[in-house]
Specification:
This protein has 374 residues and is of the alpha+beta class. The chain has nine helices and 22 strands. The protein has an eight-stranded mixed β-sheet with strand order 6-7-5-16-17-18-15-19, with helices on both faces. A hairpin with a 4-residue loop joins strand 11 and strand 12. It is globular.
């Protein structure tokens, strides 16, 4: 940001302190804005803490502009690690993907060819090579093709949020955790004037950033804004291990596995997500995830299920991010997106620039909030 070309809002309320809200607030704070972080729970302990937390663009090829935004997100993570330090949150160890049926294999090989054409780094190995070079604990056929994306990573989201919020608060930002937003006050011209919190307080603010994740539609409604959201729940399980047998994020057949930075492993599966509404409780779903993981990493059979959570992903109804100003409500901005782990740092930088300078970045052109009419 060019500090000489920005204006300084008197006060900005960032509602929702997951990775996106923390990134927006941190960027605003470091460029002189007075920031108030507001979260109904604790920073980083919502969806951010219950995500597969995979930083990538290889799974974002449905629209080139979305792919480009995610590539920018990956670069923003690397830049952020250099700025705030990588320890405890940044794990740039690459990503593995393979399949166990011809149709799925053909699809991901086709995607890899597309990505290579877009100058996205991808390497091909056999199962035997992967076991000898990367992950000796895996069970897979020797001749199965395995894709390795060396520039991808995973993130400890809660630790990243803690680092960003901590730095912002040290620079005079304010944190109001355990507080839901009950009302957003506007002036006669419809512009933002205040936010009322569940503890009974009311804060005078000039700007509101709606980064409330799954609750973003409710927050939008407080300014008579319609933000339709898709319901797409996901289940994530953490298992405790005496020794973590995997070293990077991977999409194995039917199951996603990654280390968690301590003595645990995170599991997720779209196939198990599809069973959330069938009546099975989280414990049963966790057992299914654990069983799928054991087939890929037999050592995980000796591990213990520690925690399981079902969360709603923050996805606008058309599947794309909603980021930027809403012209009908001066001072109101949205920062709502799935893949918040990948996109948090770049959305944080671009939206802070928009708030401070009034200028829109072309990377967000396809993802403006005004496509949803109020």
């Amino acid at each position: 940001m060019r500090s000489g070309s920005v204006k300084r809002p008197e006060r900005v309320a960032v509602i929702g302190v997951g990775v996106i809200g923390a990134s927006v607030g941190w960027n605003l704070s470091r460029h002189g804005a007075e920031v108030v972080f507001i979260d109904a729970g604790q920073p980083g302990e919502g969806v951010t803490n219950w995500s597969f937390s995979w930083v990538n663009a290889s799974n974002k090829t449905a629209r080139k502009s979305y792919f480009d935004l995610n590539v920018a997100g990956m670069a923003a993570h690397r830049e952020l690690a250099g700025t705030i330090g990588p320890d405890s949150w940044w794990y740039p160890s690459g990503h593995l993907r393979w399949a166990d049926d011809p149709a799925a294999e053909a699809k991901f090989l086709e995607t890899a060819e597309l990505l290579a054409g877009w100058d996205y780094r991808v390497e091909m190995y056999t199962g035997a090579e992967v076991r000898s070079r990367f992950e000796p604990a895996l069970t897979m056929p020797d001749d199965v093709p395995v894709l390795f994306y060396p520039d991808e990573a995973w993130v400890h989201g809660r630790h990243l949020v803690g680092r960003l919020v901590g730095q912002a608060v040290a620079s005079s930002a304010e944190l109001r955790s355990g507080n839901a937003v009950c009302d957003i006050g506007t002036g006669a011209d419809g512009s933002i004037r205040s936010v009322a919190l569940s503890d009974g307080s009311r804060l005078d603010v000039d700007i509101v950033v709606n980064a409330a994740g799954p609750s973003a539609s409710h927050v939008a409604g407080l300014v008579a804004r319609r933000l339709p959201m898709r319901r797409e729940p996901g289940v994530v399980t953490r298992i405790d291990c005496a020794q973590v047998p995997v070293h990077r994020a991977m999409h194995a057949p039917h199951i996603e596995i990654r280390p968690a930075g301590d003595t645990s492993v995170v599991l997720h599966s779209r196939e198990i997500d599809a069973r959330i509404d069938t009546g099975e409780d989280p414990g049963q779903l966790a057992g299914l995830l654990h069983e799928l993981a054991r087939h890929v990493v037999p050592e995980l059979g000796n591990s213990r299920i520690a925690e399981t959570r079902i969360v709603d992903r923050p996805i606008p109804a058309d599947g794309w991010p909603s980021v930027g100003a809403v012209p009908s409500v001066p001072g109101y901005y949205e920062a709502v997106s799935h893949s918040g782990i990948t996109l948090g740092p770049v959305i944080g930088r671009l939206l802070a620039w928009e708030i401070l300078s009034g200028k829109r970045d072309g990377l967000l052109a396809d993802f403006r909030p005004e496509r949803f009419l109020s």
